[in-house]
Write a structure and sequence with these properties.
10 helices; 56% helix; Hypothetical protein af1432; two-stranded antiparallel ribbon
Length: 228
């Protein structure tokens, strides 16, 4: 089992595949609901959703019960960096994703920034974070299988060698441009991500952020928000 989150204290957990699919679908719906005021970025939103947490795979413990004896919860430092790097290379090197280079850039940027409220990405800590997580990735013997299992479950083509898709220089080149749509896509991903967490964990959040997100989704009459 792969986890998107696991709280050892409360037992609250969310499967990674379920989370990726949920965020992809919800991000796509939100983008479609906003087509009257934005250009159609629903394809970009979908791919941002299904790739945004992919490299949480490198932090999966062999035995979650043993892990919880010494930890409060699973943590995934810098997963967004390697997820963005992998996506940009995967989209450019394969024919499995039909997006232009500018669309790929938007998606990669949204993935990279979807935790910006928690940890700001600067050029300095981008390289620090990349070096940190790439060492973790290289230490995992079955990384190819882990990543390919997720890709296959998402209906995407598998790759022969995951490490070929982890060169940060591709992402670096994509981020030199910027547009207003970048911010819209990042916002859509953040909203879909937080909404999915609350919904899949089946609990009423006490955070103001989730209350604002629910009010926003109701206002645009996009995704059904269930009162609990």
């Amino acid at each position: 089992m792969l986890w998107a989150r696991y709280d050892c204290r409360t037992g609250k957990k969310e499967e990674l595949l379920e989370h990726l699919k949920s965020v992809g679908e919800n991000a796509c719906k939100i983008a479609q609901c906003l087509r009257e005021v934005l250009n159609d970025i629903s394809s970009e939103a979908y791919y941002a959703g299904i790739f945004h947490d992919l490299f949480k795979v490198v932090y999966q413990p062999d035995n979650i019960d043993e892990y919880c004896k010494n930890h409060d919860k699973l943590s995934f430092p810098y997963h967004e960096i390697l997820s963005a790097v992998f996506f940009s290379n995967y989209a450019l090197k394969t024919e499995n994703i039909n997006l232009s280079e500018d669309q790929i850039r938007k998606v990669a940027k949204a993935i990279l920034l979807h935790h910006q409220g928690l940890r700001a990405i600067t050029l300095e800590n981008f390289f620090e974070g990349y070096n940190f997580i790439i060492k973790r990735a290289k230490a995992i013997k079955d990384l190819n299988k882990l990543v390919n299992d997720v890709l296959k479950s998402l209906g995407l083509r598998e790759v022969m060698d995951v490490y070929v898709f982890l060169d940060f220089r591709t992402l670096e080149g994509l981020l030199t441009k910027s547009s207003e749509e970048d911010r819209y896509l990042s916002g859509i991903l953040m909203i879909a991500d937080n909404f999915s967490v609350e919904t899949n964990l089946n609990e009423k959040s006490k955070r103001l952020l989730e209350m604002e997100i629910n009010d926003y989704l109701k206002a645009i009459n996009c995704i059904t928000v269930t009162s609990r």
